[in-house]
């Protein structure tokens, strides 16, 4: 049979003191002397007492819990963002509930409802690839529960957003390849209805334009950026009579896989095709040759998100209006794109 849950009244009865004294002692209240506190803590440990934080939080109308919804957890970028978020929030006494949408709007909507019913104090979101309707965030926003979007953002929604300058990053990546002598640059990217991929694509096109090279739709491929999707895309490109001499793809895992496929087909990197990725993931540093990339400061982004949210919850900031925080990126040139010494 399940044992009865130990309460502060059980502790008070055994110690022959009031329940109020036990409660204050467990909260390390300065009015309770050290000897009494020690007796309370020792007995609580011995009997397996657990504080009922849920009931306490309901009384305070605060759960000290922050919800996070991300597309996938198997992303090094997302992991680095979560690390930055958790570091600061935990230090401020908040816990995280993390869920993933698996890139589907329906799952994202379910997750948002779960977060609302869990009474989170705030919500942090990076949108799924196919999310078009943002109504599942309306309830939180209408009840003044702060919502912060990062990376993949709801552009038309009144909420705070934390992003990088994706247009500039896409421009710099493409311009670098052009400066290395590339004339026919393949752009392999995700769903361009999402802001991150759309803006990088726009940067790619502007760099071509500024270097007097016409945009060729044959050199633009948008897919899910899965291993299978990348393999199918590169296999199709390798069948063409005229091969590209440059590749800009919007994550490093795709760049690494493409590099492997090009080398297997007998192409030299960077002599025959120069490659640049995105994110500065570990894989970009261990390939042969190492892959040029755009450094995406995930940990810094996470810390910025957490700092903005903590300031708001502590009454030192205001998320009731729309604001966008833009972080800097850096072009990292490695051997995969270095055609000019």
Any overview of this molecule?
The chain is an alpha/beta fold. It has three domains: 8-51, Orthogonal Bundle (434 Repressor (Amino-terminal Domain)); 64-163 and 298-326, Rossmann fold (3-Layer(aba) Sandwich); 166-297 and 331-337, Rossmann fold, CATH 3.40.50.2300. Helix content is 43%, strand content 15%. It contains 13 helices and twelve strands. Helix 11 links the parallel strand 8 and strand 9 (274-276). It is elongated. It starts with 7 loop residues before the first helix and ends in a 9-residue tail after the last strand.
List the helices and strands and how they pair.
Blueprint: H1 8-15, H2 19-26, H3 34-47, H4 53-60, E1 65-70, H5 76-91, E2 95-100, H6 105-117, E3 122-125, H7 138-142, E4 147-150, E5 160-164, H8 166-179, E6 185-189, H9 195-210, E7 220-222, H10 227-238, E8 246-249, H11 252-264, E9 274-276, H12 283-286, E10 293-295, H13 298-313, E11 324-327, E12 330-332
Parallel strand pairs: 1-2, 1-3, 3-4, 4-5, 5-11, 6-7, 6-8, 8-9
Antiparallel strand pairs: 10-12
Helix pairs in contact: 1-2, 5-13, 8-9, 10-11
